Amino acid sequence: xxxxxxxxxxxxxxxxxxxxxxxxxxxxxxxxxxxxxxxxxxxxxxxxxxxxxxxxxxxxxxxxxxxxxxxxxxxxxxxxxxxxxxxxxxxxxxxxxxxxxxxxxxxxxxxxxxxxxxxxxxxxxxxxxxxxxxxxxxxxxxxxxxxxxxxxxxxxxxxxxxxxxx
Length: 166
Description:
The structure is a single chain. The protein is mainly alpha-helical and 166 residues long. It has helices at residues 27-33, 41-51, 54-66, 69-86, 92-155. The model is unreliable at 1-16 (pLDDT under 50).
C-alpha cells in the first residue's frame, strides 16, 4: 500500500524494504527520479524552488544526513574514540563540541519545521483553489441539469395519464 506524497516528494511504501534507501528525500533527487505527472503540483513547485537554491540544497543535504542512522553510528564511533584517545574524563572539549553541534542541529530542525509549514500552506492553497474550481463546475452542472429538467417538464403533455391504450 502506498502513502500519499510527502513534502519532500517521497512516494514510497510505509516501510521501505530492509537495506533500501528512500531515494527521493531531497528535492534535487525527486526532480531527477520521480515522474512529474504523479507529483502534487505543490510538491513539484517546492522541489523546484529548493533545488534552485544552493543554500537550500546544502540545508537539505545536512538535514537528510543528520536524520539518518549513519549520523548516529558516526557519532558513537567519534565520541568513543575521543573519550578513549584524545581526552580524559570529564571531557570538557567534547562537551563543548557536542553543545555547539546541538545548537546547529536544533537550528536545522527549526529550518525543517518552517519549510514543512510553508509547504503545507502551499499545498493547502493549491487544494483549496482546485476544490473551489470543482465546486463551481459542479454548481454550474447542477444548474444546467435543473434547467434542462424544467425544459423537459414544460414540453411534456399536461395530462397525468400515460398515452398508452391499456
